[in-house]
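Lay summary

Proteins are chains of building blocks that fold into shapes. Our project writes down both the chain and a compact code for its shape. Here are two examples, one after the other.
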Amino acid sequence: MSSIHARIATTTLAAATIVLAAAALATATAGASPVQAAGLVNCGATGATTPCFEKIWSDGKQVRMTFVNLNPAPSTAPTRNFYVLAPQTRTPQGTVPFLHDHVIGDVSPQDHGDARNNNLVRYHGYFVLCSAQGISSGGCVPSMTSIPGLGTIPFAKTVNGHKLTSAGPIESPENAGLLTIFDTGGVFIATIAAR
């Protein structure tokens, strides 16, 4: 493993640990039940607890995701991929613990609804990073994200000139070696607002 790959792997693991710790802290301080979701605050707001919301990308459109449980009990239930990457517009979807956006696959009808109706989906979090090959070839443009105490991480901004606002442009370049998809180990439960 080259020194850049070792640094990326070490730094990314540390960043994933911080993101998961922040999620666990938010869950630990959560006082509102999913039924109280009418007064939701943005998850990036100071002191926000679950349930809270953030915008996410799905099939090139921004939709609103309500995060219901950031630290669910272990389960063998299926999960869907939830990608964390560099902001795709001037307004990041997430600000804690660093500026970022989110991408999921196409939203299906069962993703819509609210916690009262049990229309909840389990998501598994992944960081989307430019690989060393992607950076050196120019195929992946990174947004070098400095995280205090951890260093700089190459979150993917574009691949082959395309923004990453749907799952296809993430999963295909990963197979070509332009991206590194890092498993954060984080699993959470959420629902999507109807379009």
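And here is the second example, written the same way.
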Amino acid sequence: MQRQDDLRRIEQALDAAAAAVAAFTPGAIQATLKDGGDPLTAADMAINEAILNALPHDGEGWLSEETKDDARRLRCQRTWIVDPIDGTREFILGIPEWCVSVGLVEDGIPMAGGILAPSAGHRVVGSVETGVMLNGEPVTVRNKSALAGALVLASRSEVKRGEWDRFFSTEISVRNMGSVAYKLALVAAGFADATWTLVPKNEWDVAGGAALVRAAGGEVCGLDGRERRFNQADPKMAGFVATAAGLGRPVRRFLEIG
């Protein structure tokens, strides 16, 4: 019953996010720069407020890219980890590779999540106990155990910086695109075999999608090959690897990690 209530709340939060973002037009919105140089729009803040009003109950923690961090979350057994718009640059440019990401972690483990990609027409919601639904239909990760021909989703910015050059002449197929969370959702929904980043990311980029990959039968680990714990005091993580069922070990060998 608890998990069904969690999923209902995630759905309601994504509905609220969809209503909030409908007031804005991707590709035709002004942005400012935060202290770290990342862009921020009024849509980010509107979605953040909508989800915050919809999700956490008393005793539950909250970690969002657009909310000042509150250390009380570290004492919570259940914490919501949210990115109101993952792929803000794509949102600003009108590229349909941005999403709203919601993740629920319990004792540091991502257990349930929701990804809403309005421009792409995708809503992916699920939990470890119930599996994953794409637009109301059940989905799972691909069943693949060999790297040859595996479709791997890469970060557009990482590819632009040359960080994926060494992978282009290998047996995998690489497709670059925006939004960490959306790439994870696509792996969970069976559209791709794997995604990874070997550079630091924040927990809010990863938590929701990681929950979905796990719920769909896939694997998610840190760059040491071990299970990644979320809701840490420092939400910056070194990187991650997410794969379809059976590809975890081959990918780790391929990357020489873990």
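What can we say about the second shape? The chain has a mean pLDDT of 96.
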